[in-house]
Amino acid sequence: MATGPLGYSLDEQSELCEALSDHPEWKLIFLTETSSTQDEVRNRLAYTEADYLCVVADRQTAGRGRQGRAWIQPGGQDIAFSLSCQVRDRYPPLLLPLLFAAALHEVCTDFVDTPLHLKWPNDLLSPKGKVAGILIEGQGPDTWIAGIGLNVESRDFPPDLAHIATSLCLLTDHPLDRHTILGELLQVLARDFAEAEAGKVDQIIHRFNTALGLTGEAVLLDIRKDQVRGTLDRVTSDGVELRDGRSFPLGEVTALRAET
Length: 260
Ligand code: BTN
Hints:
By secondary structure, the chain is an alpha+beta fold.
């Protein structure tokens, strides 16, 4: 297999494009290095025609997470990409966090033996720490840019992250191949967006709730500055529904966790 100086080899890039050949609405771009794939997508949207524009980078020099945090990605080991989603009126915008989280959980659980779980709104966790994060940013009224950072082969983390971060390779004895995992993730996302556009939103919501694993459990919700207790029925793109009939708009729920 031909290898590039860094990042995804040309063969890997063409395999990944081939994996999306049933989805001409997707455009896939590979970069060795960029500041942030979020900004790359934002800039390229000005001159690129695609319903789903996806930029994959081997290394980010100024990757960012939620709440102004940095997302460190040294290159050669992990997965980082951003995807533009032109929501228009094709599906509810607040379906996006559910769709991305469910897809990430579905694919990553295929590659490790350890159970993984979702932490609302943006983390994929293992018992050893955080494996992946999702960042969703608005770009005009109808367009969103969602970025995923997934630790695949990193073994060493900066001191301030060492106790909270882990990677897929630290959760399994099997060898892992970054581009295979990325291929599955892109295919699952393309499948899910096709479902969403076809109005099959309930299937995505069902997969998210199964991955979240909190239905029927006692939960604590942070709603702005208040804390609410209840038994979770389900999370939908409209909001968090409790068994006693109360529901809370999704955009207002900043944390959702099992009450221990
Ligand atoms: C978080 O956990 O706070 C979200 C992390 C999101 C990181 C990804 S990596 C690809 C994309 N580009 C960025 O600059 N951030 C997101």
